[in-house]
């Protein structure tokens, strides 16, 4: 289930990352929409200001304009001292002079923009009371007077609705002195400002519609991505389930094969032990027969009986120990103990030597004495005997003479190294890659397989916390080199797992 759990975790992480990415993209798009809305309204306010300023300059450039007086457009009372405020045409029509501020104020009052935006010309010292600033305008004009800013805008609640208000400074220019010469202004002084007020309701509605489109688009993208993730998740999940099903079937077969191979290998070990018993049993038989024969001829003495009994008892104890060792080999639940690995390795060699099929093998023993390790003693013995069983079959199927086996045990720092070399040259390059798998590896006898090595590698890696590997090597014997393989086993002095 680990693969499926990993798939679930990765899928959740990818889903969260994509969701986060789409959410960030949506938030950024909404922020941009809001920012663009604000920039658009501000740009419109600036354009309105420039239009009003240009209109005022045009009127000022002409020294004012004459219009026909109407009910709404009365003569400017603040120009009553102007000698040419009122004129009459030759046909008797009356005209009145409108100065720049008066013209602009009337235009702003009578003509609002397309979206109800409107302007207001104002000053901290207005001649016309209608140009008196409100609180917001007054605060901005004071900042103009203090040279802090030359323009300012703000979005805030004005008259119960959200508005953008913009104001830019009006400086005193040469044209202004025609009307304000007596007001004490100098060229470049802050004369006042023009404020532009734009209701945001229309732009907010457009912005809301844009936000809806953004959210819908991102939601659609997210659903598509969810669908793609789900599609690939289901495919990978089904693939993993099929793989796990196959692995379970293979594991069951491997388990059966493992059990069968254990039984077969234990049978091989039992056969070796049986060969190992022949000599002790022969000693017992010989001692008993000798006592019987000497008693028949009345030549037996008490010392002879005691000697024969001691030999039988000693041999019986040896056989008993062999039975106990074999029982421990079968036991799957032995505990770690400290033991002399040098001694046990030599004992395993004696078991191999006792087999009549191995009596023509020349052994080269290079075992460093009295190396003690803390590990599973009987798991170690089983692993070594499994390897010996495999090598025994190689020797049986090899026509090469002489047959030589090198066994070497050394200690390096906190590890022991065991090297086992053979000279049969039975294992080719392709077979060596699969040597620890339950498959055929000998080109001489295709009924010979490496189940024993498979079991040995599992014991060494899983129980003994060690490692085993195999390489091609050469073995020197009686001034001649032979080809074969070398098994290298590395074990810790103390198994802490």
TrEMBL record:
GO MF terms, alphabetically ordered: phosphorelay sensor kinase activity
Catalytic reaction equation(s): ATP + protein L-histidine = ADP + protein N-phospho-L-histidine
Domain Histidine kinase stretches: 272-495
Protein name (record): histidine kinase
UniProt keyword Transmembrane present: yes
Keywords, comma-separated and alphabetical: Membrane, Transmembrane, Transmembrane helix
Organism for this UniProt entry: Candidatus Marinarcus aquaticus
Transmembrane segment boundaries: 214-233
E.C. numbers: 2.7.13.3
InterPro entries found in the cross-reference section: HATPase_C_sf (IPR036890), His_kinase_dom (IPR005467), HisK_dim/P_dom (IPR003661), HisK_dim/P_sf (IPR036097), Tll0287-like_dom (IPR021796)
Uppermost EC category: transferase
């Amino acid at each position: 289930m680990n693969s499926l759990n990993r798939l679930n975790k990765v899928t959740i992480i990818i889903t969260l990352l994509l969701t986060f990415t789409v959410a960030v993209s949506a938030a950024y798009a909404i922020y941009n929409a809001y920012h663009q809305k604000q920039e658009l309204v501000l740009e419109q306010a600036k354009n309105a200001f420039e239009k009003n300023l240009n209109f005022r300059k045009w009127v000022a450039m002409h020294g004012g304009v004459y219009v026909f007086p109407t009910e709404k457009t009365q003569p400017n009372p603040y120009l009553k001292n102007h000698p040419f405020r009122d004129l009459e045409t030759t046909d008797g029509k009356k005209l009145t002079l409108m100065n720049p501020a008066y013209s602009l104020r009337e235009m702003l009052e009578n003509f609002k923009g397309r979206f109800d935006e409107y302007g207001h010309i104002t000053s901290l010292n207005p001649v016309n009371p209608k140009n008196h600033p409100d609180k917001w305008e007054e605060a901005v004009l004071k900042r103009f007077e203090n040279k802090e800013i030359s323009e300012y805008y703000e979005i805030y609640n004005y008259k119960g609705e959200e508005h953008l208000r913009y104001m830019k400074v009006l400086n005193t220019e040469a044209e202004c002195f025609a009307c304000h010469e007596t007001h004490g202004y100098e060229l470049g002084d802050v004369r006042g400002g023009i404020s532009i007020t734009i209701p945001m309701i229309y732009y907010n509605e457009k912005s809301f519609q844009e936000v809806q489109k953004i959210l819908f688009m991102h939601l659609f993208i997210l659903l598509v991505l969810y669908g793609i993730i789900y599609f690939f998740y289901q495919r990978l999940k089904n693939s993993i389930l099929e793989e796990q099903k196959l692995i379970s079937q293979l594991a069951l077969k491997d388990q059966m094969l493992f059990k069968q191979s254990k039984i077969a290998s234990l049978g091989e070990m039992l056969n070796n032990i049986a060969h190992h018993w022949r000599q002790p049993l022969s000693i017992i038989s010989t001692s008993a027969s000798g006592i019987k024969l000497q008693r028949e001829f009345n030549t037996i003495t008490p010392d002879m009986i005691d000697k024969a009994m001691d030999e039988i008892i000693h041999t019986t104890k040896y056989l008993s120990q062999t039975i106990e060792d074999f029982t421990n080999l079968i036991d799957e639940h032995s505990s770690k103990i400290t033991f002399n690995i040098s001694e046990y390795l030599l004992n395993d060699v004696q078991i191999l030597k006792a087999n009549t099929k191995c009596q023509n093998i020349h052994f080269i023993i290079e075992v460093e004495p009295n190396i003690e390790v803390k590990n599973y003693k009987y798991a170690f013995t089983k692993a070594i005997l499994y390897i010996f069983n495999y090598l025994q079959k190689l020797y049986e199927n090899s026509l090469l003479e002489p047959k030589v086996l090198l066994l070497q045990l050394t200690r390096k720092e906190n590890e022991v190294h065991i090297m086992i070399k053979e000279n049969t040259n039975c294992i080719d390059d392709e077979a060596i890659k699969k040597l620890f798998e339950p498959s055929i590896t000998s080109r001489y006898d295709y009924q010979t397989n490496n189940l024993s090595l498979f079991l040995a590698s599992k014991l060494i890696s899983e129980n003994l916390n060690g490692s085993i590997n195999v390489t091609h090597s050469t073995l020197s014997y009686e001034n001649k080199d032979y080809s074969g393989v070398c098994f290298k086993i590395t074990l810790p002095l103390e198994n802490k797992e």
